[in-house]
Design a protein that fits this description.
The complex is a heterodimer. Chain A has 13 helices and 2 strands. Chain A is about 75% helix and about 0% strand. Chain B folds into 2 domains: about 240 residues, P-loop containing nucleotide triphosphate hydrolases (Rossmann fold); about 70 residues, Lrp/AsnC effector binding domain/regulation of amino acid metabolism (RAM) domain (Alpha-Beta Plaits). Chain B is built from 11 helices and 14 strands. Chain B has a 7-stranded mixed sheet, with helices on both faces. Chain B has a 4-stranded antiparallel sheet with strand order 12-13-11-14, with helices on one face. Chain B starts with a strand and ends in an 8-residue tail after the last helix. The chains are: A mainly alpha, B alpha/beta.
Chain lengths: ~280, ~325
């Protein structure tokens, strides 16, 4: 009996690339072409909405216009406190917990587990798909935020120069890197969490609290968080207030390396869980 | 519950008890148990299934789907080992190049068309797009879903969902097909075509493991049956073989069509191995239950030779799955009216 499958190589990078590519195309469609994506996109663009409202208010009252340097400080605080800690966190929670937990809820996990996919390739494919989905939304939001914050010369005096000819372009690149690393870090946290517990909502709330209150933690505990490393990479520091416990920022290579190491460790844990994954829809 | 297992020669009957072996041509369960927490799925299953069509028969919750999910690696045994063609089900990257699984699950990844469902599955195999398209088209044609393939699966009828799942299962030309209630929801024509497809696969030497509630179809379709009840395999083998195996414990029913059933009843009832003889006026004959089939047939030959009774036909009345099932489980078989 001649079978088509007999001719196909069982393993190899080429096969894995194709398999991950197939998962990516499937996941991107599922992420964006459905009603469920609406709240994710709305939350992702909330900072842009706030900045757009500021533009509107400045058009009514020009006294509210800022200089580029002031805006850079204000945006730096907004980026760290609101965008990374809340928006990216929420987008990652929604996208990454759904990658596996959503398949279980919709009873479609078996579609993947019935394919000749190594479980680690399956998990990596899911992670890459989540990364591309969440990062594309978050980076699009970031680009719009920066344009709304600095591109209008009337609302932000010297904003265009700052953004396109001054240090703003360099800052934007760092913000983009921090956004990408935040998606990678929180994504790995939530993917692992979704494989470990049935309802990731409560542990996610605890992690949100931990990340938010990070500035109050002693230096040793600060390092057990994603936000600590991200803050170290932000181009514009912000004043966390009188109650904050100051810590030396981690050097950029260490911060990036530390985050990527954290991602690798979390994905290794997730792979172990995925290898033991069973299709038990009724039990779920 | 006693187990009336039938151990047979694999050449004559693919269902045998055996230990797993590398490069095996069978699905082998070796002392397999599966518990969901404290709830029993299946217990102490020793079973080997060879090429041809093997039907798993049993009521809902008996453990059929658990056995199928264990075969496909969607579940892991609590104890024991499963091997499929010598492969471990926990290596999906190897297993699913040789196995196609049509599950009981009615859910599909959301927003997919029938075409996507089959094509993307083949892409997950790592196939190039043109090869995946060619195989998807062929599989969809084989199950008669060409026109419906561009439509969303969510809008399909139950029968159409069943057929597109079947297309997915056969698309990569697997040697082993695990089919959980594959005829469910199919109209009679599609049902007949699907049965023909299964027969063609079996004739090619493939291994088909099918669960079904429709017992008369199992009778027509399967080379052998595995009766599952309460998480245990209660019997296995060819339907007739299973019946013979339990004949020593349970009487065999035979219907004798003849011109003088009353006289025949009087003659056979004198024999100690005949436990019941019932006149069947509607069919013009006698229904006999005997504990010794061989002696009964010798007796019939003798009576026919004497010429007192003209015997037109002798028909085994319970060599079907339905009767075997009733004997073993003591209940009306699933799907029976």
């Amino acid at each position: 009996m001649e079978t088509a499958s007999a001719a196909a190589p069982v393993t190899g990078m080429r096969i894995w690339r194709r398999q991950i590519g197939a998962m990516l195309s499937l996941e991107l469609r599922k992420t964006f072409l459905r009603f469920r994506a609406v709240p994710v996109v709305v939350v992702a663009f909330l900072p842009a909405l706030l900045l757009a409202l500021r533009l509107v208010s400045v058009s009514f009252d020009e006294a509210r216009a800022m200089r580029a340097a002031e805006m850079a400080v204000m945006y730096g605080a907004m980026f760290q406190l609101f965008f990374v800690r809340f928006v990216v966190f929420f987008v990652c929670f929604a996208v990454f917990t759904y990658l596996v937990r959503g398949e279980i809820a919709e009873r479609s996990l078996h579609f993947y587990l019935m394919a000749p996919l190594r479980r680690d390739v399956f998990l990596l494919g899911k992670y890459v798909a989540g990364l591309v989905s969440a990062a594309s939304v978050a980076l699009a939001s970031l680009a719009l935020q920066l344009l709304l914050a600095f591109a209008d010369g009337a609302a932000t005096t010297g904003g265009r120069t700052y953004l396109f000819a001054g240090p703003g372009a360099w800052h934007a690149a760092w913000y983009a890197l921090v956004t990408l690393l935040a998606v990678a870090g929180y994504g790995a946290v939530f993917l692992t969490l979704a494989l470990a517990v049935r309802n990731p909502m409560i542990p996610a709330a605890a992690i949100l609290g931990w990340e938010w209150l990070n500035f109050l933690l002693p230096p040793v505990l600060k390092k057990i968080s994603v936000i600590h490393y991200l803050q170290s990479l932000c181009p514009v520091p912000f004043d966390a207030g009188p109650f904050a416990l100051p810590t030396e920022p981690t050097p950029a290579p260490l911060a990036i390396g530390g985050l990527l190491l954290l991602v690798a460790v979390l994905l290794a844990v997730a792979v172990r869980r995925a290898r033991r994954l069973e299709v038990l829809y009724t039990g779920e | 519950m006693s187990r009336a297992g039938a151990a047979h020669d694999p050449g004559a009957n693919g269902a045998v008890r055996a230990a797993p072996a590398a490069n095996d041509d069978r699905i082998v369960f070796a002392d397999v148990s599966k518990f969901y927490g404290e709830v029993l799925g299946v217990n102490r299953i020793d079973l080997a299934i060879g090429p041809g069509i093997t039907a798993l028969v049993g009521p809902n919750g008996s453990g059929k789907s658990t056995l199928m999910n264990l075969t496909a690696g969607l579940l892991r045994p609590t104890e024991g080992t499963v091997s499929v063609l010598g492969l471990a089900p926990d290596r999906p990257e190897q297993l699913f190049r040789s196995v196609g699984y049509c599950t009981q699950y009615e859910s599909f990844p959301r927003g997919m068309t029938g075409w996507d469902f089959v094509h993307l599955y083949l892409r997950l195999h790592g196939m190039a797009s043109d090869e995946a398209q060619r195989l998807a088209r062929r599989a969809i044609e084989r199950v008669g879903m060409v026109e419906a393939a561009p439509r969303r699966v969510g809008a399909y009828s139950k029968g159409m969902k069943q057929r597109i799942k079947l297309a997915q299962a056969i698309a990569h030309d697997p040697r082993v097909l695990v089919l959980d209630e594959p005829l469910n929801g199919l109209d009679p024509l599609a049902r007949a075509e699907t049965v023909e497809l299964f027969r063609a696969f079996a004739a090619e030497g493939r291994l088909l493991m099918i669960s079904s509630h429709v017992l008369h179809e199992v009778d027509e379709l399967a080379d052998r049956v595995v009766l599952v009840h309460g998480g245990y395999v209660v019997a296995e083998g060819a339907v007739e073989g299973v019946r013979d195996e339990i004949a020593s414990e349970r009487p065999l029913q035979v219907f004798v069509r003849c011109d003088r059933p009353s006289l025949l009843a009087a003659r056979v009832f004198a024999e100690d191995h005949v436990v019941e003889a019932r006149l069947d006026g509607d069919r013009g004959g006698l229904l006999v239950r005997t504990e010794d089939a061989e002696r009964f047939y010798l007796l019939l030959n003798r009576i026919a030779g004497e010429g007192a009774v003209s015997i037109e036909a002798v028909l085994p009345a319970d060599d079907d799955v339905q009767s075997v099932y009733q004997y073993l489980i003591g209940a009306v078989a699933p799907g029976s009216s």
